[in-house]
């Protein structure tokens, strides 16, 4: 009787089926192609080298979280994007709704929607709360916000998380002059954030496995 190598057994258990394995491979390929191009435009020399050295970790982490995750959206793994029908009406900012929510619910680690108006486009992007202090909320990328959702530094606006808004953010939905336009491509960081949303209840952080 031939004994199966223990490491081989562990490796095979990483994947539930061949479809999942194929999704992972397609996501890795797209993420590498996309991120290397972006890094080459943004960095050079030693900075670029450091970014490239850490890229495999983030690419494989994102691809694994997505292919083995539970995001209730259609995944286009060949283009590394989420798909869902887009609403004709663009999201609206409601200061009172935001204040009633964020005055009570401000857990660190919560993935939140942020309304951005840029170059004529209105879109919802994702960020995560990493600090809460003196009735102010700090998001990892977009900085400090009041509990009302108004930014301390820019015209971006923090929104109360709803499933509809998180779908908009995950799928890159955007509007121009209140009309639906082609969705934008999400960054590697945003794709990873999408896998960290607690889709059962988007108002509380997702429990992470130990």
TrEMBL record:
Its domain of life reads Bacteria
What is the protein's name according to its record?
Uncharacterized protein
Q: Which organism is it from?
A: Pseudoalteromonas holothuriae
């Amino acid at each position: 009787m031939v004994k199966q190598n223990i490491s081989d057994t562990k490796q095979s258990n990483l994947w539930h089926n061949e479809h999942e394995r194929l999704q992972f491979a397609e996501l890795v390929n797209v993420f590498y192609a996309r991120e290397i191009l972006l890094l080459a435009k943004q960095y050079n020399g030693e900075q670029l080298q450091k970014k490239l050295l850490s890229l495999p970790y983030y690419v494989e982490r994102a691809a694994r979280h997505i292919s083995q995750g539970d995001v209730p959206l259609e995944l286009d793994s060949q283009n590394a994007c989420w798909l869902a029908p887009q609403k004709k009406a663009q999201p609206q900012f409601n200061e009172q709704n935001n204040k009633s929510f964020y005055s009570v619910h401000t857990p660190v680690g919560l993935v939140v929607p942020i309304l951005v108006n840029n170059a004529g486009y209105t879109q919802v992007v994702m960020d995560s709360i990493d600090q809460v202090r003196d009735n102010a909320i700090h998001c990892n990328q977009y900085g400090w916000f009041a509990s009302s959702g108004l930014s301390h530094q820019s015209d971006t606006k923090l929104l109360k998380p709803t499933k509809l808004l998180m779908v908009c953010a995950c799928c890159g939905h955007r509007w121009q002059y209140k009309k639906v336009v082609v969705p934008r491509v999400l960054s590697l960081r945003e794709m990873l954030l999408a896998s960290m949303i607690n889709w059962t209840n988007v108002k509380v952080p997702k429990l992470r496995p130990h």
